[in-house]
Amino acid sequence: MKLLRRQFLHLAAGVAGAAAFPVIAQDKAERPISAAGSGQTPLAETLARYADTLKYENLPEDVVRIAKRTILDTIGCAFGGYTAGPSKIAIKLASEVSSKQGATILISGIRTSPDLAVFANGVMIRYLDFNDAFVSLTHGAGHPSDTIAALLTSAELTGRSGRDLITATVLAYEVFCKIADVFDYLGNGIDHSTITGIAAVVGAGRLMGLTAEEMVHAIGITVGGNTATRQGRADALSNWKAFAAADACRKAIFSVQLAQNGMTGPSNVFEGSYGFFKVMGRNPVAPPQLCEPFGIRRAFTKRFPLGQFSQTVAQAALEARPFFKSPDDIQEVNIHVSHSAIKIMADGPDKWRPQTHETADHSIPYSAGLALMYGKIDPAYYEEPYLHDPRLVDLVSRVKCLPSAEADRTENEFNLCEFEVVLKSGARKTVRVEYHRGHFKNPMTDVEMEEKFRLMAQKHISANRIDNLLRLLWGIEREPQVSTLIAATRV
Question: CB-hemisphere CA count at 13 Å for 221?
Fold first, then answer.
């Protein structure tokens, strides 16, 4: 185990020049032996203790600022997905249920049971594939901001403040990012929504006031009963591609409520004889190192409403547009990206002829075609009549996605894209993008964040209300009740 730990710390030290992650302080009164006999504190206990000790006052200023930008961006994405078909389904189901201890659905203002409020909010947040993303040290990818659906409801139920929400957001990110760093869930066929559920239960449990013992049980209930496979992101994609994370958050808050009311969960749920890591993993898993450098610093904001591996592709395609007068001038397009990008977003014929919104926004060739043809990417382009527009379909058919050894070597740091346009005249033009706009090393400005927010919110509330909501979000640490924020989104 010591060898594994040294190997992990060495790996972590090589990422963007960062120092190895320090372990949180552990006193001598900890339980010394896990059921697995490793001599190490079980992970569920480590997470529970960390959740109990993390304080707003100890968060670095830049981490607080990133968390505030993240909450703002996530609320904006909820506005963007509010009227989508899947959101309507989730809201309709939620509206048919009442609860003595009700929770509020964003934007609609409908009151329902906490778990259904979390699910409906999560569906809205994820629908456009526009919320932030994270790439782990194990090459896994996911969207830690999905957890904010569970955090908002938990904060509302318990009358928590904006500072509490910020702290819980940093906590949820820390759990998501650091577990993703040590567990190769993508390589093991596990969907990232599984990690979302673990992060959500810890963040929500903190806001709901769970004791350390109750937190361990809540984690056990979530991990022991809720593991998702990646089939939801393979072949032709359905609505569930986006909403598995919303469901993981729904189950997470229910797990918190169960534990809070005395329900016990599986012990040693990660390390036990049939624990998560042994059953779901193929290799030994090093312990995640919590705290500095905080994982939320490595999450990035999306400039375009599409899968994260297409962010550099879309930007490169836009930068290539001055090279031609019309898309008809293009003979072919060669896109050089990592094997991971191809595996996730260019893995079969359906990515060249998408039939659903979900497949289209998770397709490198389709995204490239949109940017080349229209000079922008609008969510409407993932629907009819665009999906079967003969001119667009023809352009997409000329796109080739090719593996790049350099992109493979650098994918822990950035999603390299070398974008070559071959014109019918014989000319060849190439654009290289490493850090797309929104990457944590090329972040969007606050003004750009607000522009993105306004783009999605303006369809539902007035400009004055958007201004007021943005002021509230930028100053969320001064709000005594998160419920004020939720109420401010109501149409």
Answer: 28
How many other CB atoms sit within 10 Å of the CB of residue 26? 13
Residues of the chain with CATH 3.30.1330.120: 308-433
Question: What pLDDT sits at residue 278?
Answer: 86
DSSP for 431-442 reads: EEESS-TTSTTS
Rounded Cα–Cα distance for residues 272 and 43 (Å): 11
| Dihedral Cα 340, 341, 344, 349, nearest 10 deg | -120
Q: Give the β-pairing of 330-337 and 399-403.
A: parallel
Look at residues 371, 318, 310 and name the one whose alpha carbon lies nearest to residue 341. 310
Mean pLDDT of 310-324: 96
Outline where 33-183 has alpha helix (H): 43-53, 61-81, 85-95, 114-126, 148-158, 162-182
Contact 160, 482 (CB under 8 A): yes
Q: Considering the chain, tell me which residue range(s) the CATH 1.10.4100.10 domain(s) occupy.
A: 2-298
Whether 16 has a pLDDT exceeding 90, the answer reads no
Question: Exposed, middle or buried: residue 178 (CB in 10 Å: 0-12, 13-18, 19+)?
Answer: buried
**Superfamily (CATH H level) for 308-433:** 2-methylcitrate dehydratase PrpD (3.30.1330.120)
Q: Is the CATH number of domain 2-298 2.170.190.11?
A: no
d(CA 114, CA 110): 11
Residues in the chain: 491
The radius of gyration computed from the CA coordinates of the chain, to the nearest angstrom, equals: 22
Query: Looking at residue 413, what is its pLDDT?
Result: 82
| Range ranked top by mean pLDDT from 16-30, 105-119, 231-245, 277-291 | 105-119
User: What CA–CA distance (Å, rounded) separates 95 from 74?
Assistant: 22
